[in-house]
Amino acid sequence: MSRRAVILAGGKGTRLQPYTFVLPKPLMPIGDQPILEIIIRQLSRSGFNHITLAVNHQAELIKAYFGDGSRWNLLIDYSLETAPMGTMGPLKLIPDLP
Fold first, then answer.
1. Cα(first)–Cα(last) distance of the chain, in Å?
2. For residues 5 and 48, what is the distance between their CA atoms, to the nearest angstrom?
């Protein structure tokens, strides 16, 4: 059975500026790993095999880092907001979300 998680990762990280001028908030390191990688590893260990990342701010960097998820033996796909939609708005862009 497929287990899917959706992670909202599109914020600008204004409270972490000036660091987020260079990196998006989800790629900010905790130790030697980005915080989002730590979360993805935890989800993978918990049996999730499909993760959708809802992205906006600096989305290209997040996509470049995580790719298709094969490095973690799971599927990662993306939902791209072209304009900020608030907290729940990005979920409307995911067509196959139950």
1. 15
2. 7
Burial of 66 (0-12, 13-18, 19+ CB in 10 A): buried
Gap between the Cα atoms of 49 and 43, Å rounded = 8
Phi/psi class of residue 69: alpha, beta or left (left: φ > 0; alpha: ψ in -120 to 50)?
Answer: left
Could you report the per-residue pLDDT of 31-82, keeping only the tens digit for each? Answer: 999 999 999 999 999 999 999 999 988 999 999 999 999 999 999 999 988 7
Neighbours of 20 (CB within 10 A): 19
Using CA atoms, how far apart are residues 44 and 28, in angstroms rounded to an integer?
20
